[in-house]
Specification:
Length: about 325
């Protein structure tokens, strides 16, 4: 990834937006039939009035947050796109993250890839290159500092909306993401949880849909918010890249879904949760992880307005 230049960093004072600020780590859409460029980074929403129009709705490579009304007295907290993306991964899998600093050079430590989902005590500092030991086992992510600086806890509420659409009605294509808890949410309302959908008109840029739903059916294919969310997080882990696939039971036909540790650990033998039969993936790889979303996306691709985009890897392996 190229280094982040200062023009790619948003300077934001959340206190100036009375309608609330939301910040998320944004991985590319898991399904994308638009012609829009690949987007990943720190996604920011900001509103002047509660429920009003968004004054900011964009993705940046970094965000610098000013922590008080008088910007000069407190240092700003900065988060990069990698901090935000691995914060998303950790929160989807339910891992607690902590602020870890190198004991030698004080560089804030970010655990990426395999390390972002496996707690450990000895970390390799990317500032000075030395191994250092933290007080406890954990997963380091500098974005945690933002949460503690604002001490603004918020609740997640499943979206009350559902959507049932046909891809042919959206010639500009559609994009699908799993929702994930914001790393900063200052609005007074609850954050909505579900599946986030963008759908575009002929010109390819006019939004016909930009919303979060708890139930999504596209061309009669039903999407499960949990599978979507897990797939999105899995796609940000280079160490399992290419190993996550659709595996179904030859005996009873049930699609297999690896959850918890197994969603993060490629394994040889899968056991069907419905009938107990042993399952094995059919490809070349011996160790795999099952997520039925891959099969679901193949089904969606049949009626796609154009071939879904295939994104080049944008994250580096860390093991
Ligand atoms: Zn580490
Ligand atoms: Zn260091
Ligand atoms: Zn079975
Ligand atoms: Zn399995």
């Amino acid at each position: 990834m190229p280094p982040i230049s200062s023009s790619e960093i948003l300077k934001l004072n959340p206190n100036r937006y009375q309608g609330g600020v939301g910040i998320w780590g944004a991985a590319p859409a898991i399904y994308d039939t638009t012609l829009l460029p690949l987007e990943h980074g720190v996604h920011v929403h900001a509103r002047h009035k509660d429920g009003g129009k968004k004054a900011i709705d964009a993705t940046y490579r970094g965000v610098q947050l000013l922590l008080s009304k008088r910007a000069s007295d407190t240092p700003a907290v900065e988060i990069s796109e990698l901090d935000a993306i691995y914060f998303m991964v950790g929160s989807v899998f339910g891992y607690e993250m902590r602020f870890v600093e190198c004991t030698f050079c004080k560089f804030p430590h970010l655990d990426k890839d395999w390390f972002s989902v496996h707690a450990h005590r000895t970390h390799l500092c990317s500032g000075c290159g030395k191994l250092f030991r933290d007080e406890v086992r954990g997963i380091g992510n500098p974005a945690v500092k933002i949460r503690s600086a604002f001490d603004h806890s918020h609740r997640l509420q499943p979206s009350q909306q559902s959507c049932d659409i046909r891809q042919s009605d959206y010639p500009g294509g559609i994009q699908i993401w799993g929702s994930n808890p914001a790393l900063l949410w200052t609005a007074n309302r609850d954050e909505e949880e579900g599946i986030h959908i963008h759908a575009f008109d002929h010109d390819g840029t006019t939004f016909l849909i930009d919303d979060t739903y708890s139930e999504v059916t596209i061309d009669n294919v039903r999407l499960d918010p949990k599978l979507v969310r897990v797939m999105m997080a899995q796609s940000a882990l280079p160490y399992i890249s290419g190993r996550v696939m659709d595996i179904f039971c030859q005996t009873c036909g049930t699609a297999h879904f690896d959850e918890g540790e197994l969603a993060l650990t490629p394994h040889n033998d899968h056991c069907c949760k419905s009938c107990g039969a042993k399952l094995r993936a059919t490809g070349r790889l011996r160790k795999t992880v099952a997520n039925p979303m891959y099969g679901v996306l193949d089904q969606l691709a049949v009626l796609a307005v154009r071939e879904p985009q295939r994104h080049k890897p944008y994250l580096l392996t860390e093991i």
